[in-house]
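Before relying on records like the one below, remember that each one covers exactly one chain. Contacts with other chains, cofactors or solvent are not represented anywhere in the record.
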Amino acid sequence: MRSPVVPLAWHLARSSGRRGLQSQLLAAGAAAVGSFLLLLMIAAALGAGARADHTKWRTPDAVSAGEATAVQATTTTYVRQEPVTVVNLARLPGRGQTPAPPGLSHFPKQGQVYVSPTLAELLHELPAAQLADRFPKVSSYGTIGAAGLASPDELVAVIGRASGDVAVSEAVGEQNYYDDGLTKRAWVSGFSGTKASVFTGIDQGTVLLGAVLLVMPVVVLASAAGRLGAARREQRLAALRLAGATPRQILAMTAVEAAGVGAAGAMAGALAYTALLPALAEVPYGVGAWYTGQLWVGLPWLAAVVLAVTALITVSAVTTLSQVATAPLGVAQQADPRRTRVIRLLLFVAVLGYIWAATGDGGQLKPRQLVALLALFYGAFWLFGPWVVDRLGRIVGRCAKRPATLLAARRLSDDPRAVWRTVSGLVLAGFVAGFFSVSTLDFDGPSHADQVGVVTANAADARHTAARARTLLRQAGVTATVTVTDEDDYDSLLGGADGVIAHVSGGQTRIDTGVTALTRLGSGRYPFTQEYVSASDDIVVARVATVSTATLVLSFLVAAASAGLTSAANVLDRRRMYGLLRLAGTPLHVLDGARIRETVIPLVVLAGGTTAMGAFGAMQLNKAAGTTINTSGAVQLVICLAVGSLAMLAAITGSRPLLRKVTEGPAQTVD
């Protein structure tokens, strides 16, 4: 016999009226947003890994001199404060053939210069004295293909050299403390490297950190979507339960309806992600924009996200029906005070104690351990939140002096889980705000922004090089004061290395011209600037700042969206109660004030707690990194909380017209 569950679920969904259709559309919209954001996070993480893989050929694994067929010297120079990666390659005479580097059709011959498309545009845009004269003069440049680039905006040059050229000599391999990841020389026989460029190596880690912090607000949004229209559904299914439907049939009908709505919304989000891929690829991160293929997650991930969002919405909807299955008469009479138990508090305290013990022993935690502790904290706070809301309702009820406050207190204690779902997004976003605001790193180091440095073998060479540097700078029209440094001079750009420092006047254009002029000194390495020396610190700060900004914005937007959806659904679910209150003479502004108070009261208490915990977690991360917080972090935190609270209130206020509409003519609409 054919099961009546699916036809009956379809019939009930169609006959639910305009209010039911509104709830279903809101749920589908939330599912679409959730799947879109999940796919976006996965795409960014996978794309960052793919970009890092595309830079590994520039630092290939070294082989012995006897096995090598070529020598490679990769270094970095800066123009307009942007890094230009220069790969010098020289074939060793009498050795076998060396395969072509990624992005090139063949191994470059001596004197050939290949550049990325963006660098080619820059070479034509800038005067030769600022950039082009740093490279060998050629009649035309070759082009590096996408296989050799991490981003279409990346600045990369590949230069063919002679094996005896100073640019690939052993002197290039002599490292200073600031050369790590920026300059390296090696004997090679191919380009199968395992270490990513310093400019892309940490991208995936920072993206994953932001994704872990953002995934919970997205889960909250999807969970809220599954509970839209919960009260109406409970009333309808309780009637069916009283009419003889079995608990299994009730749960099956709910699952079918929720899965259909969730799948439709999740598919819409997946289609939106696919359609917007070209536009998403234009959003810069790290070394620049993306190749579209880097952000394509593939069909398995696409299907997994759609199924996950659908399952989450379905489970969220089904879990609301425990009372319908066991006590349908109480649901039909709306006699269900949904109290919470003290076990939630005990579990939360136990988890906090464990996290404190794990992070307070002075040891440095691995990234996976930090992620696991973060997920544990999220789960504990998800259990703890409704208990706090319940107790707040009881406390506020005893102290209430206004009708709106009393109504809000009654709502807090009657259904704390529903209230928690409204504020949970912003409460957890407060943790993100506290974490990223405090984790804004500040590497206190010397700044020598107007200096250009050239390293020499010893002090005697430095004095000779200084005279040549003055001549070259004067010929280039650069006004500069040239001084000689030694191994005891740490208050300079070279930080204790023998060499020459040029103090350049006239801004960034003159500095770029000075770098180009001093390239002719023939040391085999490009002159240093402040960007080169502080690159390792600047990259970390820039990536964390970018991810923190994006995560904060998205988490607050998602929190506001989930609050708005939940608030609108609550109005629809409670329209019978609101109608009865209006019939009893309660003014509309009192009902609206009660709605706002039942959000603001738990929000102030809970968001403050999560923000403090986020700040504590960030301090543990800073301790592991050996850094301090930036003084602007406190200001950023205050701004984030203020903007987030305003967004939450705006989302809730946006359902005020709906409240007015459902309470119009209560005599005709209330049972």
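The two ends are 37 Å apart (CA to CA).
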